[in-house]
Design a protein that fits this description.
Strand content: under 5%
Radius of gyration: 33 Å
Shape: rod-shaped
Number of helices: 2
Number of domains: 1
Length: 96
């Protein structure tokens, strides 16, 4: 009989330990989910900032080239040609 009692007590002890571990892991999982969400948000904000800076860089290069810089003459010519095509399309649409 004492062997049975000992086994039940051991089982109960192991079960309590498992429940404790489960709760700890559940809390840790929740904390990691919160951290992940926060990091994902930060990454998204950084991607937006990168895109904004790339656009700003492109705009500044174009403006610099239009001011007479010899460094980006090819880019300037391409941008001017693009703008001329857009203007031509607008004129065609207005004429219709």
């Amino acid at each position: 009989m004492s062997k049975l009692v000992s086994s039940v007590e051991s089982l109960e002890l192991n079960l309590k330990k498992l429940i404790s571990d489960y709760r700890r892991l559940k809390d840790e999982h929740h904390q990691l989910k919160v951290q992940f969400s926060s990091k994902s948000e930060s990454i998204s904000e950084l991607h937006s900032e990168i895109e904004r800076l790339q656009h700003e860089n492109k705009t500044l290069r174009t403006a610099n080239a239009m001011l007479g810089s010899n460094e980006h003459t090819k880019e300037t010519k391409l941008k001017i040609n693009s703008l001329i095509k857009e203007i031509d399309n607008c004129i065609i649409q207005l004429a219709e």
